[in-house]
Write a structure and sequence with these properties.
Number of domains: 1
Family: Belongs to the MipA/OmpV family.
Number of helices: 5
Helix content: 10-25%
Number of strands: 12
CATH class: Mainly Beta
Radius of gyration: 18 Å
Largest sheet: 12 strands, antiparallel, barrel
Subcellular location: Cell outer membrane
Distance between the termini: 31 Å
Shape: globular
Keywords: Cell outer membrane, Membrane, Signal
Strand order of the largest sheet: 1-2-3-4-5-6-7-8-9-10-11-12
Pfam families: MipA (PF06629)
Protein name: MipA/OmpV family protein
Strand content: over 45%
Structural class: mainly beta
CATH topology: Porin
CATH architecture: Beta Barrel
Mean pLDDT: 87
């Protein structure tokens, strides 16, 4: 399902592993920072792994009012060459030409939505049909200048059932960093083309007949703005506690959709990440 965006900073993970997210955010910086972090983290090893386990509290679906707690788990594997496999973002390759610039390409699965997913305690997507997960491709470019990191991520569906393009621009600022604690401010702005918007936020005439929602045509434009705060507490060299609070605001045609019951929503996550 399309779940709320949870912004966070992970050492390895390209995306916060809390859930299937709207692709692209401040968390995408992890994907293309693998190379620049390697010398410090891997100590000469060819492979590096990261596993995480925790919990997230957020709306069941983006735009919904029904909040619930969900378990979080991830496994990330990366090679010194830049090749990586991510439980959250699929398979890909990252490249760093110098410490400031990083780029990556990847293949993964798009999000899905079921008719039983809840917008509120009483309202589901019954009659709307299921949105199935399918293969998608993506690319990211990041630029780091001191404590500021700028990121851009583009994704596109590769099959008829997930056609659509999304572009996310992110900015992250490390407000404080020490051996005991780090605090990062995160922000992201996402735009989508008409095919993506209509699939997730539109209602066809046939869907309107089958469901409780009125017909609605969603066009291209801005989709989502997000701001967040991430705190990282190192427990030892391999283990760290990462906590995040994010506010998501739907925009444009997405916000005006009859499938949206709350244009703004919050999300919280906390998890332990172990690297070796």
């Amino acid at each position: 399902m399309l779940k709320p965006l949870i912004l966070s900073v992970c050492i390895l993970s390209p995306i916060s592993f809390a859930s299937e997210l709207t692709l692209g955010s401040g968390t995408e910086q992890g994907l293309s920072r693998l190379q620049s972090l390697w010398a410090e983290a891997s100590e000469g090893d060819n492979w590096q792994l990261a596993a995480g386990l925790g919990v997230a509290y957020a709306p069941e679906v983006l735009g919904g009012k029904k909040y619930k707690a969900s378990p979080m788990a991830s496994l990330e594997v990366a090679h010194r060459s830049g090749f990586f496999i991510s439980s959250s973002n699929g398979i890909g390759w990252s490249y760093t030409d110098n410490p400031a610039w990083q780029a990556a390409v990847f293949l993964g699965q798009s999000a899905s939505r079921d008719e039983k997913d809840k917008l509120t305690d009483k309202i589901t997507f019954k009659g709307m049909g299921k949105i199935s997960s399918a293969l998608q491709a993506g690319a990211s470019v990041n630029y780091t200048l001191g404590d500021v990191e700028l990121s851009s991520v583009i994704t596109t569906g590769l099959s008829e059932k997930n056609r659509g393009v999304q572009l996310t621009l992110g900015a992250d600022y490390t407000a404080y960093a020490s051996e005991q604690f780090a605090l990062t401010l995160n922000s992201a702005l996402t735009a989508s083309n008409g095919k993506y918007q209509q699939r997730w936020y539109g209602v066809t005439a046939q869907q309107a007949k089958n469901s409780r929602f009125k017909a609605y045509q969603a066009g291209s434009g801005l989709t989502l703005a997000s701001v967040g705060i991430t705190g990282i507490v190192p427990i030892n060299k391999e283990l760290r506690l990462i906590s995040n609070v994010t506010y998501n605001q739907l925009l444009g045609d997405a916000a005006d959709s009859p499938l949206v019951k709350s244009k703004g929503s919050g999300a919280f996550s906390t998890y332990l990440q172990y690297t070796w």
